Amino acid sequence: MDSLTVELEDRSYPILIGAGLLGEPALLDRHVPGRDVLLVSNTVVAPLYAELLAGALGERRVVQVILPDGESHKTLASVARIVDVLVANRFGRDCTVVALGGGVVGDVAGFAAACYQRGVQYVQAPTTLLAQVDSSVGGKTGVNHPGGKNLIGAFHQPVAVLTDVRTLDTLPPRELRAGLAEVIKYGLIRDAAFYAWLEANMERLLHREPQALAHAIRRSCEIKAEIVGRDEREQGERALLNLGHTFGHAIESATGYSGWLHGEAIGAGLLMAASLSRECGTMRPEEVQRVRALLERAGLPTAAREVPADAVLEHMRIDKKVKAGRIRLVLLRGIGTAYLTGDYPDGALRATVEAYHG
């Protein structure tokens, strides 16, 4: 088992990475506090791992909430369903919510934990690559609104992240590729050497070689943990983690959160951010080509031709990162160096979006 820590003073917590963690009673005893546990999962993951995890929780009272699968269910209605079960079972403030699943389960369960009795403890048990390298770490919880992605939510840190890499054995190939978009993002924003490693090892990752996956997960979590530890509530540096996300979230919103996986939209968004950086003169054309080539090798989409450019631009204007009416974007000063700016030509933004959309 590998371990690293998100340093947040008295709210610091471990990220544990290893094989078989979900079935280890001693580990769960240390990191799942409280007698009462609400296990939140979905219809895809629960049949695979809920019984294993519930059994390892031993003599605790374990109640399960099984949500439908998919981004379209990342809603206030799902949060209300979780809260209804907490209330019906008279769970107190000493209960623990355990999120077993991908990013949607983690975000919804975490938000319910943040709201119930003004905040109860929760544990992330991510089962997708995307959740393991990104959404399970950092305490961002929330749900979507028809008007935009993640517009309703709260910062609420977990007490632990338990990453069982064996869950990747059952992950569909498309979901694995979607998770690789977030891994690529970390190299782009902070670590050119890691990006070069990804270029050299992409086929190993696609073939699920355990050592390659373990390295990619750990390095991604290291970068995120370092940034979150310095800027928990996204007052500055943490915004860099949104590279490609303003573009990607707009694709998801414009398509009604259907048809595109989150990581697929982020993959297209990464290339658009790189292309706009080239238009702004901060990134060389050959570096943009490296981004395109790696995304293509990962099997990720690099354009959204079926999505109208005007719809994407409209949804970008209500993104959370809009300030004083100006869309702030994360752009690149080359591979490995990202920056946040609202200073770019409007014509260049429109031209970039139109180049990748219908």
What characteristics describe this protein?
two-stranded antiparallel ribbon, 13 strands, 358 residues, Rossmann fold, alpha/beta, 46% helix, 19% strand, globular, Dehydroquinate synthase-like, alpha domain
Description:
The termini are far apart. This protein has 358 residues and is an alpha/beta fold. It contains 13 helices and 13 strands. The strands form four sheets. The chain has a seven-stranded mixed sheet, sandwiched between helices. It has a two-stranded antiparallel ribbon with strand order 7-8. A two-stranded antiparallel ribbon has the order 10-11. It is globular, with a radius of gyration of 20 Å. The mean pLDDT is 96. The protein has two domains: 169 residues, Rossmann fold, CATH 3.40.50; 184 residues, Dehydroquinate synthase-like - alpha domain (Dehydroquinate synthase-like, alpha domain, Up-down Bundle), CATH 1.20.1090.10. Helix 5 packs parallel to helix 6 and helix 6 runs antiparallel to helix 7. Strand 3, helix 2 and strand 4 form a beta-alpha-beta unit.
Number of helices: 13
CATH topology description of the largest domain: Dehydroquinate synthase-like, alpha domain
- Low-pLDDT windows of residues: none
Shape: globular
